[in-house]
Amino acid sequence: MSGGGGTTGDDRSAVRSEAGAPGAGDADPARRRPRLRRPGRRDVLRAVPYVLLVLVGLVAGCVHIARYTEFSPIDELRHLDYAMRAGSGQVPRFGDLLIQPAMREEACRGLELQWDDPPCRSRSFDPVAFRDNGYQIASIHPPTYYVATGLFARTAKFLGLSDTFVDPARVWSALLLGIGLAVAFAAGRVMGIRRSPLFAVLVMVPVVPAVLHSASTVNPDSTAILVGAVVLLGAVLWERGRLPLWSLAVIGVVSTGIKFTSILAVLVMAGVFVVRADPVGWWRRRRTASGDGGIATAAGVADPDGDPAPMRTSREYLLGTALMLGPAVAVALVWSVIDKVRAVVAPDVIPQIVQSKAHGMPPLSYFLNVNQVFAWFPPVNGYDTPRFVTVYTQDARVLLTYLFAGALLVGALRFARRDEISLMAGFVALIGLVGGPLYVALNVGVQGILLDLPARYGLSLFPFIVVVVASFARRRVGTAVLWVIAVPAYVVTILAMLQH
């Protein structure tokens, strides 16, 4: 019961709401600011897997760095020369001669190859005394990786953390691997992959020779897993409405703006998006709906088999593909032209290029031999110093090869437009088996160079392989099997390096 001048319960609630509303009786703006929430125990626990994965990559790389002091024969001298220049704001040109500090590093450390460098005590070095007559040929890669590497190494020297440029430059490569593993974990979680199997498969990655050697020497392939993981994470976040459309263009630029071969990750996601767009079905629906004044799309349409519907419309998928793939191709073409224009010597002056020159088109068997077809399926085999190869590491690597290849094949056999994992498996398998020979043929046709396809060129595919493998472990037994493989494989790899 209330009188005419009284206040009902609803009125009192309204008054309290108005009193607590911003600007209502509160003249102090500071009191209206939301308080920052302190990280709780749950936040800390969520961060643990990411920190551990960074350490997994960093430890494997740093142990390799500590035990492998000589220069890698995989053009590490040229990559080091590039990083030294880029760290001081210089970008070398194709055919520039190596600088003295870089040559001194290799002369004093030695090269894991039957090659006699000048003595370390030499006052100055003649570039001709080094491989390929001392010509710089790494300029074909954009400067992005080298600038970051050079700045990191220079900072480490300035702070007194190292008395050499090589070690911190190599540690940067190991750090990139660790961060790449953490980003791949984030991508897998966004896709709904369970934590434990996802973590276990990521622990296997540093065991791979192509990954381990790249992550512990100075070379742009050390960025491949991180770039592939960024492409995967960015694409799935956009698909789920958590990133704007323009972010796909940034992803495309980043992929080839670091190294051209990382476009493989973009090609996988482009293939996934195109299939999910169902362009043929979209065109048919468009023609059918045009008579009713509307355009039908694929988003949100239920599937009779119960599979989740695509999260974007057909038009959005096709537009996203163009925005991701177009800038990636453009960056690669632009830098190729820039490098060619800036060159100071002709390619046929470089001994390595002369030796690899193709005299006519090779037979079909050259493109379809085992080393070309299976170099990226999966990209496991790579250079590793013989003293780190033991019976146990070989067993572990062969087992991982079967595991990765088997998961990709089984996943590809389930290929379905509404099954994201099967689409990734299918396109990784396609690129791995067909892309390798096509890449070799492209080198022969465009540059006239014969190429034995390295596995490291396909490392950006690994984040996709990881989520495919982990997706099969849906029960405790499968998860336990992955851990039984991952832990011994990682341990024997670390022990092999420590003991030799």
Quick overview:
The protein has 500 residues and is mostly helical. The chain contains 21 helices and no strands. Helix 8 runs parallel beside helix 21 and helix 19 runs antiparallel to helix 20.
Distance between the termini: 91 Å
Global Rg: 27 Å
Number of structural domains: 1
What is the overall silhouette? globular
- How do the helices and strands follow one another from N- to C-terminus? HHHHHHHHHHHHHHHHHHHHH
Calculate the mean pLDDT score and round it. Answer: 90
**Discrete helix count:** 21
How is the main sheet built?
A: none
Strand residue content: under 5%
Instruction: List low-confidence stretches.
Output: 1-26, 294-298
Task: Please give the number of β-strands.
Answer: 0
Helicity level:
55-70%
Q: Could you say which structural class the secondary elements and strand pairing correspond to?
A: mainly alpha
How would you describe this structure to a colleague?
This protein is mainly alpha-helical and 500 residues long. The chain has one domain (44-115, 133-499). The chain is built from 21 helices and no strands. It has helices spanning 9-20, 29-32, 41-67, 76-86, 100-109, 144-158, 166-190, 195-204, 209-214, 224-239, 247-258, 263-277, 279-290, 314-342, 351-355, 364-367, 370-373, 391-413, 420-447, 462-471, 476-499. Helix 6 crosses helix 7 and helix 8 packs parallel to helix 21. The termini are far apart.
